Amino acid sequence: MVSRRDLFTGAAALVGAGVVSRVGAASLPEAVIMQSASTQVPPPPPNGRPYNPVVTLNGWSLPWRMNNGVKEFHLVAEPVVREFAPGMKANLWGYNGASPGPTIEVVEGDRVRIFVTNRLPEHTSVHWHGQRLPNGMDGVAGLTQKPIQPGKTMVYEFEAKRPGTFMYHPHADEMVQMAMGMMGFWVTHPKNPNFMKVDRDYVFLLGSYDIEPGSFVPKTSTMLNFNLFTFNSRVFPGIDSMVARQGERVRIRFGNLTMTNHPIHLHGHEFEVTGTDGGWTRPESRWPEVTVDVGVGQMRAIEFVASDLGDWAFHCHKSHHTMNAMGHDVPNMIGVSQSDVAKKISSIIPDYMAMGSTGGAMGEMEMPLPENTLPMMGGQGPFGGVEMGGMFTVMKVRKEQKRGDYSDPGWYKHPAGTLAYEWNGAPPEATRNTSAGGQSMPAGKPAQNVEFNVRKPSGHSGH
Ligand SMILES: [Cu+2]
Fold this sequence. Notes:
- By secondary structure, the chain is mostly beta strands.
- Among the domains are: about 20-200, Cupredoxins -  blue copper proteins (Immunoglobulin-like, Sandwich); about 330-365, no CATH class.
- Helix content is about 5%, strand content about 30%.
- It contains two helices and 26 strands.
- It has helices at about 175-180, 340-350; strands at about 20, 30-35, 55, 65, 70-85, 90-95, 105, 110-120, 125-130, 155-160, 165-170, 185-190, 200-210, 230, 240-245, 250-255, 260-265, 270-275, 280, 290, 290-295, 300-305, 310-315, 380, 385, 390-400.
- The strands form six sheets. Strands 3, 13, 14, 16, 18, 19, 20 and 22 form an eight-stranded mixed β-sheet that branches. Strands 4, 5, 6, 8 and 10 form a five-stranded mixed β-sheet that branches.
- The longest helix has 8 residues, at about 340-350.
- The radius of gyration is 24 Å and the shape is globular.
- Copper (II) ion binds near residues 318 and 391.
């Protein structure tokens, strides 16, 4: 995993690798750009009202300046290069050097002024998803404002009325601009920093891209056949782990700006949905879950007590969403002996790749990959290949993790007697059920006389 966590200390003084200051016109707040794709833990707020900052997974929070009581931010819409995981970079559009853009953190009741400079080759706008604001600040090009032309800066100004979780994204050429990665997170903290206080508060956006292996730019007309599913435009093993000290209360907030729903699943703990993009849920309306489905355009905040030590998987439960770019058009050859068929086909179709005849085990397939793509699954865990990529990361709960420490503690060391183990007795006689409707395949006799279908999936239609 990546180890990092550089800090910056607010708008005035910037320290840390990856943060570059770009001074604009004198009247504009400094536009800070981010060049790193690793998680940047924000410091306590340097001015304004106090709050407990969120931690953006593989992202960062945008510094601001105070100007006569108004919190001023400067967003720059621009082309960016985003590393999805080591070995693959994409040319996206984003804000201030990264996609997703920086998280904007304000406090309930703050007067907020956001300068948006457009450095894209086409016009844009910014919609502040979920906010109560004057209609003319809602950012829908053509409906509530003129679009922001290339090279121009427009100013949005409103009071952050409702505490909670929000997103921002363009409402101008949406299909292209969102497929290119233009989106960001917004958190309005409650006035009272003790309201629904948690020990750790993680945020990220769910994303999807269609980037052909070997190419660098997403296809923007794709509606269903996406091949990269991301947490904050990173894919496992490029996604940082989340960490918690045992017993801490953890909140994780995620917003969905993809074209489909994502059932997000946490192992080893039950959680409750405590917030949506419409606000905090009432305590009497909550129930325990281990998976929550996040619809398109929705946001969910979940909370749980990190009670159990370990490395707990946290992922989208659609198995195609925990695969990376390759392999979405792979024929199913389970049960078929392929000894040298694959080689012959490869000489005709260079990028041909078949699933193993005993199942997937794609994490262990060694296929030559085109430049700039990722194996379908690729991360190494302490016990071998983790056969997932995409929307997958790990929630690491440790006794010794210090409060406020977000550094990766490494892999969990399982105490004696708490790890699945091999049974070493004699192999059992197989029980065969020959009653109507059930018949086992004879052992050791693959395929012959057995009819099978090789079906080539056409993509993700219908997911
Ligand atoms: Cu998903």
